[in-house]
UniProtKB/TrEMBL annotation:
NCBIfam families: SerpalmtaseAlphaP, SerpalmtaseBetaP
MF GO annotations: pyridoxal phosphate binding; transaminase activity
Cofactors required: pyridoxal 5'-phosphate
Stretch list, region Disordered: 1-21
Superkingdom of the source species: Bacteria
InterPro entries: Aminotrans_II_pyridoxalP_BS, Aminotransferase_I/II_large, AON_synthase_class-II, PyrdxlP-dep_Trfase, PyrdxlP-dep_Trfase_major, PyrdxlP-dep_Trfase_small
Name the record gives this protein: Aminotransferase class I/II-fold pyridoxal phosphate-dependent enzyme
UniProt keyword annotations, A-Z: Aminotransferase, Pyridoxal phosphate, Transferase
Record-linked CDD domains: KBL_like
Length: 416
């Protein structure tokens, strides 16, 4: 049958008018149209055509250095990790086709949870299908109607969504503001359930939370504490256990949330805890129960990677060296950065606005460098950021090359 000419929209289909459920996205549609009208490559539609290593890929037909991934420890091409995944694929097939509480718990899921318990030195570990679901599940399940969640205003979307889903009272406080947190905690009615939710590293600016003080105050005020260590696992702390380890409060927190999509180098999420009743979560946590479990190849790569991260001192040291060099070099070139000193593997470069940010992003891509362009609402204070995340596999020479690229692109776009 011939397709015939393209038909105009059916008149009974609302478009832009009353009843069009898409009209709430008009501002975002206009923002994207304006950006693309300036002639810039769409920063939100990049395709990695080939990936050679944790730090190199072909993007838009060009060999590119990757400086905008969460591959902090460079585990994605580790030969042991890859062969564990291949073996599991052969031995167990491509997927579990079921929930963890029915047919979806394989030996590999148990081994992955054992690796996490060992990594953190904690009694319980529960693996979710993503880090997003780990926050969504744990927060919504433990903090329900009548409970209070006190959280940093710059918390990740999965934390906010977990609060909404659980229907607890949400009490936000100013980013990393210890006094504001304490004030909010003290205002909560006597006897109410309280959960303080913090992140080790905040991913937009790459800054670290003052966890020693915050955890102490939360505990003194009778709150349970959950810390999302998505951006510090494997890297920060003597054993890579995160900012909680570095700050000496790992034994005081009730839950650590993490992800396999960053340092671990695959996909998945988890929660570890010493709470004696923690295991009941497996029956009551809906984002754990009502979804399929991770494929056997994924949990096998995760478990292998986690075990290798226990013994990755050299990688941690090299990643710190990279972070310090990039931060110092960009600062010396005159870029405005998210933190005065390097605090993590993330170095955020603050752009004057979205248009200039997008043209700098594109100039860097033409140089052969990929960074993340981050814009509101993901960013704090309406900032446009070029987010650089370093990898332990970036060589010293690559970091120098990156600085040269920033210098040329910065001058070409007038940002420095
Ligand atoms: N928490 C934080 C702080 C994050 O930055 C992210 C992802 N960027 C997540 C949780 C969710 O992790 P995942 O990618 O595994 O869903």
């Amino acid at each position: 049958m011939s397709q015939g000419p393209v038909q105009p929209d059916r008149p009974d289909r609302p478009e832009g008018g009353q009843g069009d459920l898409f009209s709430k996205f008009d501002d975002t549609i206009a923002m994207r149209a304006n950006l693309l009208a300036s002639g810039v490559t769409d920063p939100f539609a990049l395709v990695m055509e080939k990936v050679h290593s944790p730090t190199r890929a072909v993007c838009n037909g060009r060999e590119t250095i990757l400086l905008g991934t969460y591959n902090y420890m460079g585990m994605t091409f580790d030969p042991d990790v890859i062969s564990a995944g291949q073996q599991a694929l052969r031995d167990y097939g491509s997927g579990t086709t079921g929930s963890r509480v029915l047919n979806g718990t394989y030996q590999g899921h148990r081994e992955c949870e054992a690796a996490l318990r060992e990594f953190y030195g904690m009694d319980h570990a529960m693996v979710f299908s993503t880090g997003y679901q780990a926050n969504l599940g744990i927060i919504s399940t433990i903090a329900g109607k009548g409970d209070y969640v006190v959280l940093d205003i710059d918390s990740h979307a999965s934390i906010w969504d977990g609060c909404s889903m659980g229907q607890a009272e949400i009490v936000p406080f100013r980013h990393n503001d210890i006094e504001a947190m304490e004030k909010r905690l003290k205002r909560i009615p006597e006897g109410a359930g309280k959960l303080v939710v913090l992140e080790g590293v905040y991913s937009m600016l790459g800054d670290v939370a003052p966890l020693a003080e915050m955890v102490r105050i939360a505990k003194a005020n009778g709150a349970m504490v959950l810390v999302d260590e998505a951006h510090s696992m494997g890297f920060i702390g003597e054993n890579g256990r995160g900012v909680v380890e570095e700050a000496g409060v790992i034994d005081d927190v009730d839950f650590i949330i993490g992800t396999f999509s960053k340092s671990v180098g695959t996909v998945g999420g988890f929660c570890v805890s010493n709470h004696p009743k923690f295991d009941i979560m497996r029956l009551v946590c809906r984002p754990y129960v009502f979804t399929a479990s991770l494929p056997p190849s994924v949990v096998a790569t995760a478990a292998t990677s986690i075990r290798k991260l226990m013994d990755a001192r050299d990688k941690r040291e090299h990643l710190w060296k990279n972070s310090r060099r990039l931060h110092g070099g960009l600062k010396a070139l005159g870029f405005r950065l998210g933190t005065e000193e390097p605090q993590s593997a993330i170095v955020a470069v603050i752009m004057p606005d979205l248009e200039q940010g997008a043209s700098m992003w594109e100039a860097l891509l033409r140089e052969g460098l990929y960074v993340n362009l981050a814009r509101p609402p993901a960013t704090p204070a309406n900032m446009t950021l070029l987010r650089c995340s370093l990898c332990a596999e970036h060589s010293d020479e690559e970091v120098e090359t990156i600085l040269g690229m920033f210098e040329r692109a910065g001058r070409a776009t007038g940002i420095i």
